[in-house]
Design a protein that fits this description.
Length: 197
């Protein structure tokens, strides 16, 4: 008889999140289910329910994971030196690297935003994206008085463009890394030309 190692709740919840990300990457968010998650980490399905109330609660924790990751990137940028454009360049790199290492995240975002199966989760995800865009807006606005960012630029609109630049890269990643990597730098150069004074 196999004895399952006793793990802390936090460790087990993290395993469930990681397993969920793997499954979403392979099968998509709509095909995520408790049985597959349990099989991925060698548990019985009932063990998953000791840590999560069900699929929606797991997805809610995945949104938390996205939020924590974006906030960690923003905190890293806030603590870095450099002017507004250098901070935005670092944030862009951290953001694109995060999505490259976590290919399930775009699937989660697109699935929740495109559908309306769970308006509560959709609303929560939108608030996470809005909070991130607000941090980008703040970097842009902080660069305007010093003349780093053009005074005519609307920081909120430029922040939404910053966030929106990521979507084409995600689509290109489906075709392989090379096209996305080439466009990543070209798109950044165009963006910088548009915001600089």
């Amino acid at each position: 008889m196999k004895v399952t190692e006793k793990k802390t709740t936090e460790t087990r919840r993290n395993e469930i999140i990681c397993a969920s990300l793997k499954i979403i990457e392979k099968k998509g968010l709509d095909n995520l289910n408790v049985a597959d998650i349990a099989a991925e980490i060698d548990l019985v399905p009932s063990a998953i329910y000791r840590h999560f109330g069900g699929k929606d609660e797991i997805i809610d924790s995945l949104i938390d994971f996205v939020d924590r990751s974006l906030q960690a990137n923003a905190a890293c940028v806030a603590g870095s030196g450099g002017d507004a454009v250098e901070k935005l360049a670092l944030l862009y790199k951290l953001h694109t690297d995060f999505l490259k290492t976590q290919p399930a995240i775009p699937q989660i975002i697109f699935s929740l935003l495109a559908g309306n199966k769970n308006p509560q989760l959709k609303k929560r995800l939108i608030s996470v994206i809005a909070a991130y865009a607000a941090q980008v807006r703040n970097i842009l606005a902080a660069g305007q008085p010093d003349g780093e960012i053009a005074p005519a630029i609307d920081p909120a609109a430029a922040a939404m463009l910053f966030v929106g630049m990521i979507q084409p890269l995600i689509i290109l990643n489906q075709a392989g890394d090379d096209p996305a990597d080439a466009f990543k730098q070209a798109m950044w150069a165009v963006y910088v030309r548009g915001i600089k004074n």
